[in-house]
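Structure request: INSC protein, Piaya cayana.
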Amino acid sequence: MHLIQVDSVQRWMEDLKLMTDCECMCILQSKPISSEKDEQNELILSSQYSACDNLHLLLKRAWIISTELTRIAQKLEKNRWQRVHSMTVRVNCHVRSMINEYNAFTRNSSDEMHQFENLLIDKCSEFTAFTERCIQTEDEQMLKSMKSCINETLTTVAQYFGQLIELVLTHEAQNLLKQIELSDSVYITELAINSLFSLTQQGAHLCRIIAKEGGVVALFKICRQDCFRCLYPQTLRTLASICCVEEGMHQLEKVDGIPCLADILTDNTHSEATHAEAAAVIAQITSPHLTFTQHLSSFLENMEEIVTALVKLCQEASSGEVFLLASAALANITFFDTMACEILFQLNAMKILLEACSDKHIVDTPYSRDQVVTILANMSVLDQCASEIIQGNGVQLLMEMLFEKSSSGNPGEVAACERVQQKSAVTLARLSRDPEVANAAIKLSCIPHLIKLCRSPAERNNSDSVLVACLAALRRLVVMSPDGLEDSDFQQLVKPRLVDSFLLCTNMEESFV
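Returned structure:
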């Protein structure tokens, strides 16, 4: 279950209410104060939160229960019987609270769900009774024999709990999708889509549930209705989240999602926000990190018009975020199919991207530069790209990218900087097979810069991949200008095998004191 990382004190403050409720339930034994006011009490509780808030409360409670069950198993291994019993009582209370809270805001839960609720409550009561007996005896032999029973009961509790949560999440996804499919109201549909997006942010498991329940089908239905045009951006954003799992990708292919995305991207009457979110879906489904994209046969049929629309979006982007989404989609497509590089060259994409890099308001982060240099690296395999690079002052840009540094020190940004450095060195190495590019790089003092990166781990963010790329680029350039190298550099960085030079440079980082 995906949880946002927060300060521990803040987490405690958020959990305090749940813990307090838990103690209340312990006293009241899950019974209402007054049976006459049940309906009124339920109405007040359900009106306090939106359905989405209630669901997040349920997920938080479920996370606490899951954590407690794990801790019980750990304490059980150490025979900490007193702790096992107190934690079992707490889990029992949390389970009852969770079930009561959920039943307070849902009105149409299934018989199967009620069945699992009763099974879970009964098994939790049995679990508590077992552990209570354990703290009342000191007979080691009896405790040993009861331990296996407790382990078995704990496993059953965890199993029933997991099945109940699965049913609850499926039920809530079904309710939201039913609202999306049946409502003609823009307001109600928007609320349902926003709640669905919020669910997708809880992790891949929820995305799988939504995909299996027809989420992709329902959302593309919205994207094909003009009356919901104002909802296209959030609908596409939700689709991008669902398509991070294989089930979402299969559904997208079945409902002809790619032609629909192509239509949206090429329709100039749509807003830039809609085009950007469509680009985000393309970036997601073509991600080289996914292992289940190769079945997207319809993508190849629509690739040319998609690539054309994405290049136009890069050229006309009004913000860094829009450029990032469009360029990320293009970068992924260059991995997805080699024909994309030919199309990009014909569209003059290299010139457009190089010009965009000169605008610091558009290409404003290492993440954007990572996408640009990825496209350049993949396009550099084409012989005809060399002249474009020189005309667009691309060699100078690649030299600047060699020394990409993070301004914040954020781990994600540092990793992006390393990728920029590595790919710019790779691009220089590939393009330097052309004498004109190699000479331009040499005139810009590329060889001393590459030597500095090889010699100084701090300059390359201590990255081995950057080192290998720099060694390869250096060796390619030295062929064109062997006189620009000192003998010691030649003996250590060029003459040996690449792996030996690599080991020599990495050993410079070690201290033998």
